């Protein structure tokens, strides 16, 4: 890049800089003295500060990512050359240097490519003619210590030419670094000799070895970084589709073709002009993002986290559009670029492979290639199998019949073939053939539906279709969500990747591969009548994301348009539209509603209306949650869904008992008494009278017996307070049961103690016994895989709860020691919402709050409910990334619903303030302990 393009003179006046360094040396009798070094340090430091400020301003002006990296590199060259000249001309001047007193300062690695990010390491090779001398040692140390003092991270080596050659032969990392060598200052003859020796003794006849090593290194790096280019917090340098992938292509091009730039690859026929432009544009965009990231954070930040995405988007000039925020538009652009990098990698590797195959082989290789020569694929005249990969017969295959653009993927699926890079390259160049005629073609849609519902690996084929640009063009509505991300902490992948992963999960469930994880889904899958409709619903359930309208409603409209095209009947199309419109309902009901409340089940049954719909909605819901990302699904969510499914199935089939609640409670008491082995009749009679009807109807007999033994043991030991812990490995949940004197703030204190202990509450059941004691069960998300480790954790949390309740620890102080949960929630904004409903339950008022997650939120909310004299029957805590939806079933102190409008308005106002964090801190009003003094009795979940 010419200096004129870089505008280096605007950043630093090179001659003036050199004169200033000479002046510093002349001002000090000893240019190597500490005083002279300090003067040099202060001047260079200020020069660097001003220069980097100018470069950042220039980046904001012209937006050139590669230009910015080249300006930083050129500026760094001037600084290093100036320090070198000071050292050799002033501090360690030798008037008649010997051959051994020559030195080259060579940039290697990324710096050797004349590109540098603001926070990058400075990779230097100090090249010697022979072994190190006292003079070269002094000069190298002077340069290194000055750079370190200036705050640079310097990767360095001091070697002679023989050492460079020998180490490059044995160490691929060193070989790659020296491949990108560039003289900064010092002896040009020494550098030239090293370059010739490296090319002749290291690179010659080692192309195959180098390519294999670099591709293996790339694959390992991808696995370490998540092996997906669609992670919503990508590593822009090391991640799949990032800068390192482009640099790998550059290394291969330089090593194999001796190409210095993308235009050289055009001349060689490796890339088309369009592909070369794409190479340059992709690199420029990624460099711009990386430079902005480093300038913004003040360090070598390579992960594009939520914390900085919004600011980077603003720096790059993105604006909000209907349905997509500026940051979402920026990230969509990023993922499209990452996809382009993947396309370039595939094209480049295809050409390399073809060229290496033409090398003169031995007789054995000739015979092997003859035995494995390409052969026609049965049933087609346009495609061949080439070493286990599907390829096209000629370059006119798609032009002759555009349906072949879909048939290629269908044949790969049914014959379980990989894709030849040349075939995918031709697909990429044939996008213009995907027009309305092909989209409406009956055969093309039949083939696509066969791919989608394949019992082999539809996820793999759909991903290849998507990466080749076919899926988004064949289904244009899908194309709109390709590379689209949602700016939240809940979804781990782009929308298209989420949908394709969901199809993969459904296929594995369909094949019976996940029966252990999803026994209910595995059992009902064979009963699904409209299998093709279910697969289509899973693929399309989020297809309307990024639009101003509700994506469920808009998605149903799209489904009604696509259904007939796929060959669905009107009834199947209606079912597809219904599944997409209702795809969030089952998850929300299961996680935010009381599944022991009869109204919940009846309302949900009215929504689904039939067993077929219920089965399909369950399968869709499981696939949707599972495909969100690692750690989102757990056994507890599975159990909630199974409970909702089971209760709804009974209702839909008329299996729900018609017995009154009073009769069922009496039956539950009798069943409990029968199970209390070893108890006297009086003990049994006294105990079963302790519990109110809600407890008897909502807690299983097995758990009632366990609670009975726990309460009996607590009474024997004459304890005021006790906790019991049980782990559920399959459910990924840990249950903590608290037995204590009742108190208005009990649940609030328990929630605060859990927050202080770092435990995330998933659900809570709260009951009061007839003697005024509380029996509360708190379900927290599991942290450890090993049961013994998780049990110890649960016991520690139980101990924190006991310490807070008895006053041994003061809750505000305990919470204050806990760091604010997930600092990364700061970039997000969730408008606090509070709603009150008296129709969702026959016996309770249902309060639902939504807001930004934070430590102590549940404690604050339950404290407000207590202040408002509300009796909490059950609490259901749901977290979607940074957003929480908490639901409380409440009544007033005399057991009635909250119907007064003024009181409802007051509840909403107080809770909204608590969620927003502006409510008076209720924790400050809590007593030091609420168990030790006599506590007023408040029926929480008590009377029916």
UniProtKB/TrEMBL annotation:
Residues 1-378 are annotated as: Uridylyltransferase. Uridylyltransferase (UTase) activity is inhibited by glutamine, while glutamine activates uridylyl-removing (UR) activity. Its EC number is 2.7.7.59, 3.1.4.-. It comes from the Bacteria. One of its GO terms (molecular function) is [protein-PII] uridylyltransferase activity. The keyword rRNA-binding does not apply. One of its GO terms (biological process) is regulation of nitrogen utilization. The keyword Repeat applies. Its cofactor is Mg(2+). Residues 735-816, 846-923 form the ACT domain. It catalyses: [protein-PII]-L-tyrosine + UTP = [protein-PII]-uridylyl-L-tyrosine + diphosphate; [protein-PII]-uridylyl-L-tyrosine + H2O = [protein-PII]-L-tyrosine + UMP + H(+). Keywords: Hydrolase, Magnesium, Multifunctional enzyme, Nucleotidyltransferase, Repeat, Transferase. Residues 495-617 form the HD domain. InterPro entries: ACT-like_dom_sf (IPR045865), ACT_dom (IPR002912), HD/PDEase_dom (IPR003607), HD_domain (IPR006674), NT_sf (IPR043519), PII_UdlTrfase/GS_AdlTrfase (IPR013546), Polymerase_NTP_transf_dom (IPR002934), UTase/UR (IPR010043). Has four distinct domains: an N-terminal nucleotidyltransferase (NT) domain responsible for UTase activity, a central HD domain that encodes UR activity, and two C-terminal ACT domains that seem to have a role in glutamine sensing. HAMAP family: PII_uridylyl_transf (MF_00277). Modifies, by uridylylation and deuridylylation, the PII regulatory proteins (GlnB and homologs), in response to the nitrogen status of the cell that GlnD senses through the glutamine level. Under low glutamine levels, catalyzes the conversion of the PII proteins and UTP to PII-UMP and PPi, while under higher glutamine levels, GlnD hydrolyzes PII-UMP to PII and UMP (deuridylylation). Thus, controls uridylylation state and activity of the PII proteins, and plays an important role in the regulation of nitrogen metabolism. Belongs to the GlnD family. PANTHER family: BIFUNCTIONAL URIDYLYLTRANSFERASE/URIDYLYL-REMOVING ENZYME (PTHR47320), BIFUNCTIONAL URIDYLYLTRANSFERASE_URIDYLYL-REMOVING ENZYME (PTHR47320:SF1). This is Bifunctional uridylyltransferase/uridylyl-removing enzyme. It comes from Flavimaribacter sediminis. The gene is glnD.
